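quick one, 242 residues, struct below
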Amino acid sequence: MPWQQYVADVAMEIDETTGQLVYREVVLTVPRQSGKTTLLLAVMIHRCLAFPTRQRVTYTAQTRSDARRKWEDEHVAILNRSPLSSFYEVRLANGSEAVKWANGSIYSIASVTEKSGHGDTVDLGVIDEAFAQTDDRLEQAFKPAMITRQQPQLWVTSTAGTMESVYLNGKIDTGRSLVGNTSGMAYFEWSADPDADVDDPATWYSCMPALGHTVPQTAIAADRMTMKKADFKRAYLNLRYE
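---
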């Protein structure tokens, strides 16, 4: 979808002087069912196959079991149906799950602890569903594991959380403050104006980049009739639950 292409184009921007990635960190917050999983999978595959040296990619979600379920049921399942299915092998053993590519690159999952990434170097770290993180322990684990790598990136992605989503809320505040400034962070946010009419389809189209592509307006209208207003705003308008 256009929004996915836009994020990929900006996040993968190359500095013409150095030939290296411009951004060391990418923060993305979008409504649910926008196509974030598909984008992340493409980014991780690109990292494993398009870079000149073997790469290590580590993915996390709310919990390790959530990461395993997403990895096995969605990521690996999509890969197995793709033209790339002959270029890797899948390691399913509990605790050492990984997609091992023929060029030596590895895509694995990690626990949601401060020890995640310790002992290994990481080229691309992904903290998905960041709303569930109540502190920055994952980032504290990932960034030192990336410090010696030539072109590392940390991706932080999520739909809006609650007041308890301390880590994500901090990233949103930082990202908004850096808009218009030169920094090492690429920040993307699709959310509605908090004062906009929740029932107006124009509000939905203002912040739901998949609406009209993979998400039909009729489905959103039906959910608006049955969901609590606060839940609807968080899921579909990407507004913090307070």
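The longest strand covers residues 153-158.
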